[in-house]
Write a structure and sequence with these properties.
With 391 residues, the chain is of the alpha/beta class. It has 2 domains: 143 residues, Aspartate Aminotransferase, domain 1, CATH 3.90.1150.10; 242 residues, Type I PLP-dependent aspartate aminotransferase-like (Major domain) (Aspartate Aminotransferase, domain 2). The protein is 38% helix and 15% strand. It has 12 helices and 15 strands. The protein has a 7-stranded mixed β-sheet with strand order 2-8-7-6-5-3-4, sandwiched between helices. The termini are far apart.
Length: 391
């Protein structure tokens, strides 16, 4: 048996939240809860995507246009569309360096297939729990890179620490913190010097509006020799239930005489049957001019929600990071409260549901995460309740 599963800690965060919320609703059936904790989107798929979905379904109804198995690494039409999207940002990628997936979460775990077991992996804490769990399952040694308010929850390279793999998420989940260009340059330099590989999670890059913050690790010189980029349409285009993402593995990325691009081709052609034709046509619509304009309009709604929450926190003089270039706001619990203490306080006194920071690791104790993916109406109501409660 894989003993790594025995080393996993119980994943209790959202289960415990669900239990607390259910108990509260049972006691207060008329209460209107403002749910600011969930990371799921609330707006529907944009019109360009819906039209593409319908057209693809209709194609599947005709023998002349029917599609069966798709290429395991992705359809040419989608890989080429994604490559053109990168070119628009000044990044040249070959379509066969792009691998279509059923979402970033799948590849964040599956990518470990091409690495030896028992390697040393640096993970920024507070962390998206799947990073840690996937590596524990594989028997890897997790090195938690602790962070806090003093460094804006953005740990930097430490030459005294070893690493074979380095997980970087920017904008980060849960903190919303973003690495600037020079900071990412330092990480690339560290990875090259230590023969390490960066797994760059760019799931929230579409929320970046500051030009000094890279959308892609490949904006940094040298990253092609040391980084894999994993992207998602879940938050960019509302594909949380539709499921599509993509992973970039440059051909220049080599270790021990082996090319990681070729290894990932072999992995995908062995372990998957590809993403459905219908889904890939929907994803391709995201990268059309119409699709880009429409998904940006949805993102602007979520960014507007973040602005409403940040304005309330500014009035309350509560420290936070994220929000401006990310869909998450990571705030310091007021009056020295612990993460779960503040959760209970908000639920009972203001009927607001958020996410206790300690659920993302010990460095999250005393902090709290708000999501901006709710409705504008509930977000405004939550901000008003915060001001009434804490003002």
């Amino acid at each position: 048996m894989n003993r790594g599963y025995a080393d996993l800690e119980d994943s209790y965060l959202f289960h415990r939240i669900g239990q607390k919320v259910a108990a509260f609703e049972a006691e207060h059936p008329d209460a209107h809860l403002c749910r600011m904790g969930i990371g799921d989107v609330s707006l529907p798929l944009c019109d360009a995507v819906i039209k593409a979905l319908h057209a693809a379904v209709d194609e599947q109804a005709s023998k002349a246009s029917f599609h069966g198995y798709m290429p395991e690494c992705g359809a040419d039409f989608l890989r080429e569309a994604i490559a053109r999207h990168y070119v628009s940002r000044g990044i040249g990628l070959e379509p066969d360096e792009i691998f279509v997936s059923s979402g970033a979460s799948d590849d964040l775990g599956s990518i470990l297939d091409i690495f030896e077991r028992g390697i040393e992996v640096q993970i920024m804490e507070p962390a998206y729990p799947a990073y840690v769990d996937a590596n524990v399952m594989d028997g890897n040694k997790v090195i938690a890179r602790e962070s806090g308010k003093e460094n804006g929850f953005l740990p930097m390279p430490d030459n005294a620490l070893p690493a074979n793999l380095i997980y970087i998420c920017s904008p980060a989940n849960p903190t919303g913190a973003t690495y600037g260009r020079q900071q990412l340059e330092s990480w690339v330099e560290y990875a090259i010097a230590n023969d390490a590989i960066i797994i760059f999670d760019a799931a929230y890059e579409a929320f970046i509006e500051d030009e000094s913050i890279p959308h892609s690790i490949y904006e940094v010189p040298g990253a092609r020799e040391c980084a894999i980029e994993i992207c998602s349409l879940s938050k960019t285009a509302g594909f949380t239930g539709t499921r599509c993402g993509y992973t970039v593995v440059p051909k220049q990325l080599e270790r021990d005489g082996m090319g990681l691009n070729a290894m990932w081709v072999r992995n995908r052609t062995t372990r998957t049957n590809g993403v459905s034709y219908i889904t890939q046509r929907a994803a391709a619509a995201v990268f059309t001019p119409e699709g880009q304009a429409q998904v940006k309009a949805n993102i602007d709604v979520y960014k507007g929600n973040a602005a409403v929450l940040m304005e309330a926190l500014d009035k309350l003089d509560i420290w936070y990071t994220g929000g401006r270039n990310a869909p998450y706001i990571w705030l310091e619990c007021p009056d020295g409260m612990g993460s779960w203490e503040f959760f209970d306080f908000l639920l009972e006194r203001a009927n607001i549901v958020g996410t206790p920071g300690v659920g993302f690791g010990p460095c999250g104790e005393g902090y709290f995460r708000f999501s901006s993916f709710g409705s504008p109406e509930d977000t405004r109501l939550a901000a008003s309740r915060l001001l009434d409660l804490l003002g």
